[in-house]
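User: My advisor, Dr. K., asked me to get a structural model of this assembly before our group meeting. I'm new to this, so sorry if the format is off. These are the inputs:
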Amino acid sequence: MTYCVAIKLKAGLVFLSDSRTNAGVDQISTFRKMMVYEKTDDRFMVLLSAGNLSIAQSVREILQTQVLRDEAPHDGSSSGLTIWNATSMFDAARVLGCAVRHIHKRDGAALRAANVDFNVSLIFGGQIKGEGMRLFLVYSAGNFIEATDETPFFQIGESKYGKPVLDRVVHPDIPLDEAAKCALVSMDSTLKSNLSVGLPLDLVVYDANSFRGDKMVCIDHTNAYFRMMHEQWGIKLREVFDSLPDPVWNGGTTDTPLVSQDGTYPPMTKIQSPEDRVI
Amino acid sequence: MTYCVAIKLKAGLVFLSDSRTNAGVDQISTFRKMMVYEKTDDRFMVLLSAGNLSIAQSVREILQTQVLRDEAPHDGSSSGLTIWNATSMFDAARVLGCAVRHIHKRDGAALRAANVDFNVSLIFGGQIKGEGMRLFLVYSAGNFIEATDETPFFQIGESKYGKPVLDRVVHPDIPLDEAAKCALVSMDSTLKSNLSVGLPLDLVVYDANSFRGDKMVCIDHTNAYFRMMHEQWGIKLREVFDSLPDPVWNGGTTDTPLVSQDGTYPPMTKIQSPEDRVI
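Assistant: The format is fine. Below is the predicted structure of the whole assembly, which you can bring to the meeting.
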């Protein structure tokens, strides 16, 4: 399994991925799920991948090296469209979608014959000079959706454990480093609850309009910041939990009793033993 | 969808369930997922259900009313085994497993013909006089596993959002009301991140060796304790998040820098634009 998250803010973009790949629980490997594509001062793009590793690697290979001539640029020029000449992230995402369809055409039937789903999901985001930053979620059919101010983050892979903290913290106005911290907390919860997600992590923080990747780090268990965050989050979360009063049943003296059975809804059905029933 | 959680402690048992049922997102109903079976001073049992509602309701119906004559008690007596005469929770769980198989026999083929999975999962726990408390997770094949000191809680339904806090807090020695609080926090995270889980909640807290259910409450949005917990947890979680330092990149002055690119692992692959490559 995998966990990847990407966040789009006014200040920039945050990308975070784990690196565990497993087939069953006894075949665990480390594969990096992040690729960075940079043409300094012109474009900066990041690809995160989850799903079948062979599909994801093939898609990445094609995206790096192949000109996709079946997709003409929107501007009508005759040369094939690539992620290097696309004039918008939308077109670059179309190239990626096309690469996914290319691999589906090549491998889909054979995978189906082996009862393997054509399962891949990709997060692709960045900025090309001339437009703002954009962030896309690309599905295994090659179609995609784009992040908006209302939905400023995407997750792929084992996404549920780490979603609550993102739901609580992320909105487009928070600073970049705060979003990076939030992504790391989200990853930490996922690492704690799911064995199929593992270190090291790849983190990229992109400053809007910089068109270069200066903030890129691989985080393993020796990383001082991640260790601090992991320990402090655990300790302080526990302190918050302890600071909340326990529920008190009827007769308690707290202001917030867990009042029983006189609310709007009836109490749950209690079935009495047959011989206790009065006929 | 559904979210149910049950926790087994030395001090007793905690059961919590939501009440949302949906078929797609435009057909949402309220169905309670908790049933309490009590023979005062003799046995107290709680059943939580997730999965296909028609299967769960059928299983509950059978469990309440039908003697399962195909399962003889372990003690060799000739009368059929029921949840009311079972001398152990293990036997009661066998009755439940048998009820699931009964419904599978009755409905399985027709469901399969309609391309509907025979999908049900059940948590069943309680105490029968003469033995300690026990807690079981019953699968759709009628087989089951039992909670232990190492794994003192079970979840069914939409379980992932609410698992991290259980992983951090629950162990068999914590007090009952603290475990109830933990279950409610777990439910709160799930409610926040998944539309298919909804109020009201059913909560039962069972004191070990009491053989009766005095602490049973239905919690809706007017419940003072749940509102307090929901608000305070959100506020304080945010305070903890804010109290952790943001990551600092090279050149920062904190003790815990997010050091870049000189760790054990190489940085992620960065692909340069083709024309930037030096041949």
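One thing worth pointing out at the meeting: Chain B touches chain A through 89 residues (CB under 8 Å).

User: Perfect, thanks a lot.
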